[in-house]
Amino acid sequence: MDDRKKDQSIQSHANFDGDSATGDRTQIRQDQQNQQPPQIDPSLADAQAVAASLGVDPNTGLSQAEAERRLAQYGPNELASAPPVPKWKKFLAQFKDPLVYLLLAATGISLIAWFIEKANAAPGAEGGEILPFDAIVIVLILIVNAVLGYIQESKAEEAVEALSQMTAPQTNVLRDGKIARINTVDVVPGDMVVLGEGDSIPADGRLLAAASLRVAEASLTGESVPVGKNVDTLAEAKALGDRANMVFNGTSVTQGTGRAIVTSTGMRTQVGKIADLLQATDDDDSPLQKEMNYVSKILGIAVCIIAAVVLVALALTEGFNDIHDVIDSLLLSVSLAVAAVPEGLAAILTVVLALGVRRMAEHHAIVKKLHSVETLGSASVICSDKTGTLTRNEMTVERVVTPSGEVQLTGTGYAPEGRMIAIPDAGLTSTPSPAQEAAQLEAVATLAVGALANDGELRENTGAGDGSAASDITWEAVGDPTEVSLIVAARKVKADRKYANYTRIGEIPFTSDRKRMAVVAQDNADAGRLTVFAKGAPDVLLGYCSRIAVNGAVRPMTQGDRQQILAAVERLSAEAYRTLGQACRPLGTASLADVPGVAINAAGHVVDIAEQSDVLENDLIWVGMVGIIDPPRTEVRDSVAEAHRAGIRTVMITGDHPLTAARIASDLGIIDATGAADLGSTVLTGTQLDELPDEAAFDNATRNISVYARVAPEHKLKIVESLQRQGNIVAMTGDGVNDAPAVKTADIGVAMGITGTEVTKQSAKMILADDNFSTIVEAVREGRGIFDNIRKFLRYLLSSNVGEVFTVFGGVMLAGFLGITQPGSQGVTVPLLATQLLWINLLTDAAPALAMGVDPSTDDVMARKPRKLTDRVIDGQMWGDIIFIGIIMAAVTLIGMDMHLAGGLFTDRSVDAVGHDAQMTEARTMGFTILVFAQMLNALCSRSHDQSVFVGLFANKWLWGAIALSTLLQLAVVYVPFLNTAFGTVPLSAGAWVECLGLAMIVLVASELRKCVLRAMHRR
C-alpha cells in the first residue's frame, strides 16, 4: 500500500495514538478498532438486549479489570488523525522561508564569484581564497539556525501537548457499581455512561434511562434545535437525527440526565465514519502574528528600496565594469536583506509565548492556545460567577427555617460532622421550647426532602491508613455542591434514616428556567406508595404550594404563611445565605397511572414524568427551607483590589438572590457597604434587565452596575455583548452548558476546570484548574508581563537590525568619505561582510532575545490601564526608539571603522604604512566587534522605553548569561585563526579594544540621555 492510500486507510479505520511516531503503532490502533464487537442495530433492539450482547450488567457497569482488558483489545476512544510528521520533515521545514531562499541565493552567488576569481587568476599567482569561506559560513549558519528553530519548535509543541493533556476531556461512567470520572479516551464498548446537563457525549451509545434529556446534535446532523431523547425501542431503522434512543459521540447534553451503554468508540462511531470532514483547519493569524507579518513586509519593502537606490547610485556614479562589479552589487543587496530581518524572530516569539503559557499553567491558568496570551493583558472587565470562583464552593447548610421556628447546624465542609442547635426566641431560656422542639423535628423532615430530591453524591474515601482513624477518611462531593450540602446536613442530623426506604422512580430535573426540581419516589415500607419530593428557589416553589406542614399536621397555606416565609428568605439572603425551599406531595397510590391527570401513551405506559410537571408539581406541601453559606475566598478581596488598581473592573453575575449577591460583593470590595444597603443603585436582576426598553438603556445599565442577580444564561450573553459595545475587553467565566455562548463570545472565555462542563471548556480560551478568581487576576498579570517582554525583545531585535541596515547603507554611500574605498578604485566595497552580519544576528538575536522573554515583570505592570486591542504592538514611540538607536549604532560603527582606514575623518596616521586591504580587514573587525558590543548594551537599554538601564540592572540573570556567552563567542571570532579566515577578521590590539568598548558605550549613553528627556517631558 502506498503512503497516500495508507494514510487514507488510517484516517478511515484506525485510532490515532498521539504518542506514536511510526506507522506500525498506528496500524496497531487500526487493528484494534477493527476488532470492535459486531452488533445488531442498537436502536432497533431492547436496551437490556444490547447490554447482554455487550456482556455488561446495567446496574453495576463493567469491572475495572474488564474495562482495562477491553481498552487493550479495542484501543483508545480516539478519532484517527494524520500520521505524525517525521522529524526530518520538521527539520527541512525550517528552511521554508523567503529569507532562507535569499541566503541560499547569496550562497550561490558567492560560489560563482569564487569560481570566477579562481578561473581568472593569473598563472602562478594566488587564486584568492582556497575555499569559498563566505558560502561555507552562510550554509553552516543556516544549518545552526535551522537546528535552533527545530529545537525551539519541538519545545513549544511539548508545552502545548502537556497543556492539552491537562485539559483532556473526562466522562462519568459506572464501574464496579460506582460512578467514576475517567478520561474520555479510556471509554470502551460496554461502558455505562452517566450523562448530565453540559456533558459532552464521549461515544455512541444506546440509552437505558432518560429524564428530560435533550441533546444538541448540530455538529453531527445539522439540527439546530436540541433533540429530545427517550429509551423506547424503534420499530424501524431511521436516520441519525431521528434515532431518539441513541446518543452520539461529539454531541452534548443541553438538559436533563440519562444513562447510556456505549456501543461504539473511536473510528467506529458515527463521527469516526466521517472523520475526513473533521480535520482541523488552520487557525487565523493572531494580532501579534499579523503585526509581525506587517513589520516584515515594511522591512522587506524598505530593504528593496534601499538596495535599488544604492545600485542605481553606483551604476550612475561608477558603472559596472565587469562581472565582479555585478556580483559585488548583488551581494551588497543580500547583505542589506540579511541585516534588515531578524532571522530567529518567529522561533523566539513561539518559545517566549510557550514559556509564558507554561508559567501560567503552574499558577493553575491553562491557556489553550499560545496567541491567547496577547489578549489576557488587555482585559478591562472580568465578569465572574459567584459560586466557586469568588467563593470556596464548599456549600454548607447552616440554617433550617421551618413553620415552627429555626435551627442552626454546626460543622463546615463536606464531612458529615456536626449537630443541630435550637435558636432560642428572644427572652426565653436556652432550654428548647415546645415550638423549638417541633422546629427540630421539622428540620429533620426538611433535610430528608432535600436529600431525596437530589442528584448529588457524598463519597467517602479511605486514605493510606487502615481507615480506623478520622484522618484516614476524606469526603468527596460528586455533583452539584449545593445538592451535596443537603446530603451532608441530612447525615449530620440522621435524617438519612427517614429516606432509607425510598426508591426513586422518576425525575423532573432542575433547569435554569424552572429553578426547581422534583423526584417521584416509592416508599418500600408503605406498600410502595408514591410521593413527590421537590426543592427549589423558595419564591418559585411557593407558587406551587397550597398546603403547609406545621408541628406534624398539614393545613392549608395562608397569605400570612407566604409573607412569613418570604420575610425569612429576605432575612437569610441579607446574611449572605443561599436559600432553598423543600416541599412534598404524597400521591396516595403505588402507581403513577392512578394519579389524576397523568398522561398514558398508546401502549398503556405512563408518559415521561419530566413532561408532566404541571400535573405532579402542584398542590405541594411546604415543609421548610435551608440557608446555605458558601464562604468567600479570603484571597479574592486582595485580587479584586489589585484588578481595580490595574484599571480592571470586576463584575459579579449570579443566579442567587440580590441580597446575597450584594452582601458577597460588598465583602469582596466589588461594591462598597453603602451600595450593599442600596440595592436599587448597585444590583440589577434578570427581570429588571428584561424590562430595559432598548440597547442604549441596557448599555447605560451595564456601564454603571457591577452586580447582577437572578440572571439566566441569556442575560450573561447580553451583558458581555453590551460591555464589548462600550469598547471593553471582556473576560467571562462560566461552568454550565448554557454559559458556553457567553464564554465563547467574550474576548477571554474562562471555563472552570473543576465544576465546568466539557462543552464550556471547549468554548473557552482559558481554563481555571482551581476555579479561583484570583487565578484570573494572576493570569492577567502574567499576560501583561509576557506582552511587555515581547515588546522588549522586538524593540531590541529591530533596533539592532536597523542599525545593521544603516551601517551597510551608510558605509556604501559614504565609502569614499570614510576611507572604505580609495581614490581611483572601482567596484563596490561593503563595510561588513554578509557572513559577519549573519554571525551578529545569530549572536544578538537568539540568546539575549530569549533571555528578555523571561525578564521579570516591573512593579507597575498592574498599575497601568489595560491596553486596547487596537493599539499597535510596535507603536510610534517604539519606532522612535528603534530608529534613534539604529542611527547611533550605525554612526559609532562607521566611526570605529573610519579610525582604521587611511583617508577618513578620524584616521590614525600610523595606518598609512599598511596596505588598504589590510586596513579594510582590521576596520571590518573593528566595525564587526563594535556592532556586537553595541547590540549587547542595546539589550540592556531595550528593557524599557523610558526607565533608566540602571533600574533593576541585574534582575535578569539569564540576560547577563547571554551577554557573557556572546562576548566569549566574539572573542573566539577575533582570535581563533580558522574563524579569522572564515569571517574575515584579524586579532585586535588592547588599544583597539578600548576604542571598541568606548564607542559601543555611546549607545548606552545616548539611550540614557534620551530617556532623561522623555521622563522630563512626561513630568510636565
From TrEMBL:
The chain crosses the membrane at residues 99-116, 131-151, 298-317, 329-355, 793-818, 838-857, 878-903, 923-941, 953-978, 990-1009. CDD domains: P-type_ATPase_Ca_prok (cd02089). Residues 1-44 are annotated as: Disordered. Residues 41-115 form the Cation-transporting P-type ATPase N-terminal domain. It catalyses: ATP + H2O = ADP + phosphate + H(+). Residues 29-42 have a biased composition (Low complexity). The keyword Translocase applies. It is found in: Cell membrane. It is a multi-pass membrane protein. GO terms for cellular component: plasma membrane. GO terms for biological process: intracellular potassium ion homeostasis; intracellular sodium ion homeostasis; potassium ion import across plasma membrane; proton transmembrane transport; sodium ion export across plasma membrane. Belongs to the cation transport ATPase (P-type) (TC 3.A.3) family. Type IIA subfamily. This is Haloacid dehalogenase. It comes from Bifidobacterium adolescentis.
